[in-house]
Design goal:
By secondary structure, the protein is mainly beta. InterPro entries: NAC-dom, NAC_dom_sf.
């Protein structure tokens, strides 16, 4: 059953999908234009700005500390260790962890990244963490290879309501 909004869900519902569910249910259905079980995951180019500047009206969040996006950036970052974003960069700390269903059927990969904010000539590690999920590459009829991505963005042990002070 597809749900169009969190408003249609019972009180107390929490959106807390497993890694496998993000890939096998949400990302696969998105790629194949099938109805999603929940339509409140936004499409957004998460690499255009700092993580604390991303949309906050994302209803697909867990206690306002985890945010989910379908990444719509035009770049294929799958083989890059860093990705520029705003006044900083995301750096991979765990690369290409295989994801499989209980029957050992390979469904995709997961990267874990941490945001480093540029401060002067240095980069300072922040408490923002991103889990990036990819399904296996798909070849479209026009032979273009796409790598669909869903982003699970988390802030660890910090308030997401406060934005950091401007860089000196």
């Amino acid at each position: 059953m597809a749900v169009n909004s969190f408003d249609e869900l019972p009180a107390g519902f929490r959106f807390d999908p497993s890694d496998d569910e993000l890939v096998d249910i949400f990302l696969m259905k998105k790629v194949h234009n099938q109805p999603l079980p929940l339509h409140d995951i936004q499409e957004f180019d998460v690499f255009q700005t700092e993580p604390w500047m991303l949309p906050r009206d994302n209803r697909a969040s867990l206690e306002n500390r985890r945010y989910y996006f379908f990444d719509i950036s035009n770049c294929n970052f799958q083989n890059m260790d860093t990705r520029a974003a705003g006044n900083g960069e995301w750096r991979i700390i765990e690369n290409n962890k295989d994801l499989a269903l209980p029957n050992n059927h390979f469904i995709g990969r997961k990267n874990t990244l941490v945001y480093w904010r540029k401060k002067g000539n240095q980069f300072v590690k922040t408490q923002w963490m991103m889990h990036e999920f990819h399904i296996a590459r798909i070849v479209e009829p026009n032979k273009k290879i796409i790598t669909p991505t869903v982003i699970d963005l988390t802030v660890e042990n910090a308030s997401v309501s406060a934005r950091p002070p401007p860089s000196p």
